[in-house]
Specification:
The protein is α/β, with parallel strands linked by helices and 372 residues long. It has one domain: TIM Barrel, CATH 3.20.20.220. The protein has 13 helices and 11 strands. It has an 8-stranded parallel barrel, surrounded by 6 helices. It has a 3-stranded antiparallel sheet with strand order 6-8-7, with no helix packed on it. Helix 3 links the parallel strand 2 and strand 3. The longest helix has 30 residues. The two termini are 39 Å apart. Bound molecules: flavin-adenine dinucleotide. The site of flavin-adenine dinucleotide has 22 residues, from strand 3, helix 5, helix 7 and strand 9.
Amino acid sequence: MPNTIQILNKAWEGVDPAMVTDEPPKFSFEYFPPKTEKGIENLYNKVYRMSRQNPLFLDLTWGAGGSTSELTMQMSKNFKKMFNCEVNMHLTCTNITESSVKDALVEAKEGDITSICALRGDPPVGQDKWAATDGGFNCALDLVKFIKSEYGDFFSLAVAGYPEGHPNAITEVTDVEALSETEKSRLIKLADGKLMVCTDKSFKTELDYLKAKVDAGANLILTQLFYDVDVFLAFVKACREMGIKCPILPGIMPLATYQGFKRMTGFCRTRIPDEVAEEMEAVKDDDAEFKKYGIELVVRMCKRIWATGTVPALHFYCLNQYDTVFKILTALGIEINKLDSEEERAAIDKVKELVKQTLKEEKEGKEEKKQA
Ligand SMILES: Cc1cc2nc3c(=O)[nH]c(=O)nc-3n(C[C@H](O)[C@H](O)[C@H](O)COP(=O)(O)OP(=O)(O)OC[C@H]3O[C@@H](n4cnc5c(N)ncnc54)[C@H](O)[C@@H]3O)c2cc1C
């Protein structure tokens, strides 16, 4: 049976990109594996609530350097089993050999996971540069090719896309006047005043590489976070012009705190449009006002993107929280299932019980492994 991403893909084939829809957006939710046992328990309970909002899929990252890979696998399988939702599990090439990837894919298949987001991965914590592992893969393209060659169409495969170019392809600008109009539209100003851009030449290389990932078998693109809708729409247009036809889901990251926003956008080298920077300046010292503004900004972005008809759904980087995302969905016209019926309350209690049991089993499994 096709999974929700394959159905989305089929539905997207032949869709007129200029189609404008009055329906509220479809959406998916992304999480990361928490560091503590309490965090894990909380996340299961939150994901239950979120799974009841009918997302296209739940998406779980693979920790930098493979640090949380066991937890990602375990939680992905449990999300599928407990919440009966499509799960898109991330898998990276960092610190992993081909034979461990093979094992991970066997386990994913046995756990009824049919969607993988194939990535190169971030460098492990404490390392600046990414390096391939002996007996492993060099990049996401290698991983896509490998999964395809081993499993054919069994897994639907998502890959990452970068509307502003991958951070490694973004370099310092010394002469702004010499930039082309498209380069100027992607210009990034870092907190220290440095100007950076992915040049047209590098951007073309990035798109060629993205196309290679899609041609090798990826059928969904999830984008890096961004706050300039024009840059995102130009990226989608450029993808379409070069024959990348699969659905592209914009990566939407709700704003939590000003410091967190600065840290994340600095790390990812994200362009902040002047008017957003100005609006933010007025609320940056008041956490509550900043959060309120953050919701308004993201809702504005989502509405604008959705109205273009160029994407079939929105992909939310939830930061393992549901309250802000639910506020955004409500503002987009999506009714939130509050889970306050007796039936739902009973289901929540059952999930809590299952979570406790699962955590106990995981702990026992780890102890057994240690002793063996
Ligand atoms: C949606 C999304 C989800 C993510 N999830 C995770 C996660 O779960 N875990 C994690 O650790 N990180 C995650 N990341 C971060 C990601 O791993 C990093 O951005 C990483 O540096 C690149 O991964 P990639 O899959 O985009 O790499 P690739 O697609 O391999 O590309 C990385 C860069 O190298 C260039 N490149 C690589 N190989 C070639 C080649 N053969 N030919 C030409 N150019 C090449 C590309 O053009 C690009 O600039 C995610 C990023 C996004 C956008």
